[in-house]
Design brief:
The complex is a heterodimer. By secondary structure, chain A is α/β, with parallel strands linked by helices. Chain A has helices at residues 8-26, 38-51, 70-83, 92-97, 115-125, 191-201, 264-273, 291-298, and strands spanning 30-33, 60-64, 87-91, 130-132, 149-152, 180-183, 212-219, 222-225, 239-245, 255-258. Classes of the chains: A alpha/beta, B alpha+beta.
Chain lengths: 301, 419
């Protein structure tokens, strides 16, 4: 008899494609949350595979903090063109201008917290009933118990005590009016899996994942990119360093790592010997031990 | 770089009663297999110190939510990951409290293997039996009984052998192919990843070695061809004007182009024209692959239909005998209608009959109490509005499983295994 065995990356791929197709089948207005980071790039890639040769039957949503790495926007626009899908942009600047949120002040000011409001408003404006995101269970303790289909009440909030059990491969996307879902098709992937898969599939990545020279500020053990959006103390001296990014988010809170990694092979080697989680570079998670869980309850992801 | 292209995935669940050292065991596996990052370890060291412990409490690595940390218990299934050069591992870490049978069922539903912990000082207890019976009920093929805290019984061979003997007596009730026993100390690391120097009398393998080498390739059903249609792909573009593909995940069996197939419920037959993927057509598809089938003939097929081999068809019917685990804190309403999801099909169902409940510690039938409450396991008969196409759960996990959903709250209230 032949060996009917899938390698684990192919098994993860098959599982994620199954979930993405379930979302397209069970919901009226699904969408994919696209941040420009590797996880949402992976999601877009898997979505393309799921519906081939047809186009992806849902739009991509980008919540734009206005503090993007320019490289992220270039990548996003090229990808949208290649996929031939609709892009919806939710602007944090608009939320600020409309007085819905207040810009944080001080040196650690970041628009990361403000994103949540813009995200929920955008989902409501377009009546999105299932928003797919690239969150993974290995990223952070608060995510280890997350469901694939994560139920949200009419305020977009997550109640850890009110999540539906998920058994076998059966996903319950039933909901009452006003309620919606966040769906995480790559829940079971680890950072290493994502990079190995990107390498195996030769997926094009934004250039800032690879090594480059950049003006950085050292703050609380994190290397932040020097930019006009960052309030810089007089004592903080910008340094030109050889760095890359392990995650991509808002410029004011995404930390860089010193790295010479110039190719996917280099990155995989680096991740496999790294002793820091990728979220260890995120200033937003360092605010308190349960920072992630608190933001999650509010609807951040 | 690891040779990830050929590595297999092992999904396993862990169970044990409170204080059996389950979190410590998982922490130990993550730590010894070097899956712990420095910032995570640093946080755990700090917490241990703060609590006044003189050792690093590895169980803190897996303590998830704020509410749980406050109560020092694990309330919900948590998923953990680690890998070795041989395999990737996915752990469904399930809490041990009595009231959480439902979590154990949830964790077990996707697992190939169950690691069940026993405290060497206490031996086989009620919860050991319950966890084993649930694993058996959910058709887990492999059980590894870890006799933990061997350090607290002086690494005694006699203690270990007594527990093994007791368990073997009990295990005659189980329908599990493969049961293994390992004496360990999760706290000290004996026989978890590294061989213990304290138990020379033990000649078996370490837990990790066993997890890396247990044979799982034949756990999937590669005989009965079942393809539940998930989504119909119709590009309607100039290039692919007439393309009509049926997307889905192979539930079981092996499909090949040219195979004669029946489409249920219509019963029309056709041949597989091609099996498509993004990379192009493939010569075969087997579980758990996600593919797109095209047929030679134009047949009206939609989500919820099932493509099967002409000469190997599933059962079909509206009266379904099923063993359920009740998951909701609202008791079953025997006169209500429930939504039922089975593969990609959705129907409505009524409870036609409640046959009996099980005492989950012994599997004895309880015939006089028919109120089905949270964590109860019962045999019932369902009547569905349309026929289901199913196999017995024993034969086929994917076409033998279903869930019930409350019509008003839309919450999943029961997990069902078709008899």
């Amino acid at each position: 008899m032949e060996n009917y065995n899938l390698s684990y990356l192919r098994e993860l791929e098959a599982e994620s494609i199954f979930i993405i197709r379930e979302v397209a089948a069970q919901f009226e207005k699904p969408a994919l949350l696209f941040s420009g980071g590797k996880d949402s790039i992976l999601l877009a890639h898997l979505s393309r595979k799921a519906f081939h040769p047809a186009k992806i039957p849902f739009p991509l949503i980008h919540i734009d903090t206005g503090h993007n790495f320019p490289e992220t926007l270039t990548y996003r626009d090229d990808l949208i063109k290649a996929l031939g899908v609709k892009l919806i942009v939710g602007s944090v600047q608009d939320s600020i201008d409309q007085g819905k949120v207040k810009e944080e002040k001080g040196f650690d000011a970041s628009r990361n917290m403000l994103q949540t409001v813009t995200l929920l408003d955008t989902l409501e404006e377009y009546k999105i009933d299932a928003a797919m995101g690239g969150a993974r269970r290995d990223e952070e303790k608060a995510r280890a118990k997350e469901r694939f289909f994560s139920h949200r009440d009419e305020f977009g909030q997550w109640d850890p005590k009110n999540q539906r059990p998920e058994l076998w491969n059966i996903f319950n996307g039933k909901k009452n009016p006003g309620e919606h879902f966040r769906v995480f098709p790559i829940s079971n992937w680890t950072e290493m899996d994502v990079w190995n898969y990107i390498h195996m599939e030769k997926i094009d990545m934004p250039v800032i994942y690879f090594t480059h020279k950049r003006l950085c500020i050292r703050r609380n053990g994190t290397l932040l990119a020097h930019s006009d959006y960052l309030n810089i103390r007089e004592s903080e001296k910008p340094e030109m360093l050889q760095v890359r990014f392990r995650t991509i988010g808002d410029m004011t809170c995404t930390g860089a790592v010193m790295s010479e990694a110039n190719s996917l092979e280099d990155i995989i080697k680096e991740v496999s010997i790294s002793r820091q989680t990728e979220r260890g570079t995120r200033a937003d998670d360092k605010r308190s031990e349960s920072a992630m869980e608190d933001r999650k309850k509010e609807g951040y992801f | 770089m690891i040779n990830y292209k050929n590595n297999e995935l092992l999904r396993f669940t862990t169970a044990g009663s409170v204080d059996d050292g389950k979190s410590t065991l998982i922490g130990r596996m993550l730590y010894d297999s070097k899956s712990i990052f420095e910032d995570q370890l640093e946080a755990v060291k700090k917490s241990s110190e703060y609590k006044g412990l003189d050792y690093v409490d590895l169980s803190l690595l897996t303590d998830g939510l704020k509410a749980e940390r406050e109560q020092s218990i694990t309330m919900d299934v948590a998923y953990r990951y680690f890998s070795t050069p041989k395999r990737k591992f996915m752990i469904a870490d399930t809490p041990g409290q009595i009231q959480y049978t439902r979590n154990m069922v949830t964790g077990a539903s996707t697992a190939n293997l169950a690691v069940i912990l026993v405290d060497a000082r206490h031996g086989i207890v009620e919860q050991t039996c319950r966890h084993s019976l649930i694993a058996s009920l959910l058709k887990i093929s492999h059980i590894v009984l870890c006799i933990n805290k061997m350090d607290l019984v002086g690494y005694s061979k006699d203690v270990y052998e007594k527990i093994v003997e007791d368990y073997k007596k009990f295990a005659t009730k189980l329908e599990v192919r493969d049961i293994q026993f390992i004496p360990i100390s999760a706290l000290m690391g004996d026989n978890v990843v590294d061989r213990s120097g304290n138990m020379d009398w033990y000649e078996g393998s370490t837990l990790l070695y066993l997890l890396e080498n247990v044979h799982i390739a034949s756990d999937n059903n590669h005989i009965d061809c079942r393809f539940p249609v998930q989504f119909v792909i119709r590009p309607q573009s100039d290039l692919n004007h007439d393309y009509r593909g049926y997307a889905g995940r192979v539930a079981s069996g092996v499909f090949m182009p040219g195979d004669e197939v029946s489409v249920l419920p219509s019963g029309f037959t056709s041949k597989i024209k091609s099996i498509d993927t993004f990379e192009g057509p493939v010569s075969e598809a087997f579980a758990p692959m996600s593919v797109t089938l095209r047929l030679e003939d134009e047949i009206d097929i939609s989500r919820g239909d099932m493509i099967v081999r002409v000469h190997n068809q599933p059962e079909s019917g509206q009266d379904i005998d099923v063993i359920i685990c009740w998951l909701s804190n609202h008791s079953m309403n025997p006169s209500a209608k429930y939504l039922l999801m089975h593969t990609t099909k959705e129907v409505k169902a009524i409870i036609k009959e409640i046959n009996y409940k099980f005492d989950i510690n012994t599997l004895h039938r309880i015939e006089d109490d028919k109120e089905i409450k949270m964590n109860d396991i019962a045999r019932i008969k369902l009547r569905t509005t349309q026929p289901l196409f199913y196999d017995s759960y024993k034969k086929n996990r994917n076409t033998g499983s279903l869930i019930l959903i409350d019509e008003a709250t839309k919450v999943t209230v029961a997990a069902g295994m078709i008899i």
